[in-house]
Amino acid sequence: MTPFAFTVAGESGSARAGAFATPHGIIETPAFAPVGTLASVKALEPDDLRAMGTQLVLANAYHLHLRPGDEVVRRLGGLHRFSGWDGPMLTDSGGFQVFSLDGLRTVDDDGVTFQSHLDGAKIRFTPETVMRIERNLGADLVMQFDHVVPGQAAHAMARDASERSIRWLARARDAFAALEAEGTYGPQALLPIVQGGIHADLRRDAVRAIAGTGDWAAWAVGGLSVGEAKPDMYAMLEACDAVIPRDRPRYLMGVGFPEDLVEGIARGVDFFDCVAPTRMGRTGALFTHDGRLNIKRAEFREDDRPLDPDCECRACTRYSRAYLRHLFTAEEMTGLRLLSLHNVHFLVTLARRARAAILAGTFASWRDDFLRRYLAKPAS
Question: Is 160 a catalytic residue?
Fold first, then answer.
């Protein structure tokens, strides 16, 4: 019997509150997953993540293959033991990272040859080699190697990449099955990725083709938030929502701004990941229920209020805007840590509140109220 199962406890239109069982625990959805690219969510420890209710953490196969090496992680017991995180984990295949190396990679139907961003060494990724890397890392959920194109890619380019990703999925599926038979770690689930750019017909075609290649524990939607306009992203989520099987969870890759979480949930997305909360936190930018702000602004020099009075994270319940601004202007590391913690907490909590609203039957009004307040004024 598979340890991966999805049940739905409540729905509101396309939004749903579910539970996704994995070998390392149940993910109550909707959920936001912080990104620990190098097996570490920047500036935060596993205890920080547990305290705020994080359920799923992402790590990146490309980066971990380069450093310290996926074989090293395997010999040290896998990502869970290596990182100290005992909850569910997911590894991205590195497709986005490889294809972002414009000018440093060559694509063919077999795979991609690229240069390491660390030392310039030549590396070859294929669907089969990526499966070996992800098997070595040992996360619960592993992604296929896919071909990512820019958000405004023309129909022909997006179709070529989508069809290549589907061919690579079939190869990844076969390689994954062979590696599972070898043992090493317990069960993992391979997730397909729906590509197709901002072209609804390609997205629908991809879903139909992927459905014919296997019975997938969950589905991912990729190639969004890569330069396209937000209305285009939302339209692609609606196209996918109409055709992806509703009895499986949907994962929207690399999307994590508050308004996009809320709009994604409304369009049938169950879990998300993004580097934005920690990346922004390191620069002084933060989310609040009244929109985004930057703590380095002079107006906060003597502001004794919390970052967000409606947030219960440590940064908001213990410290003032004035103190946190002081930490940033003084270049104290504690400042970037506290803002990173706040931003991750904000998104984890936002997804949890969306779930509660779905179960209470109030999601539509909750969504409207949140977006009206969050988008009421421009970021400061």
Answer: no
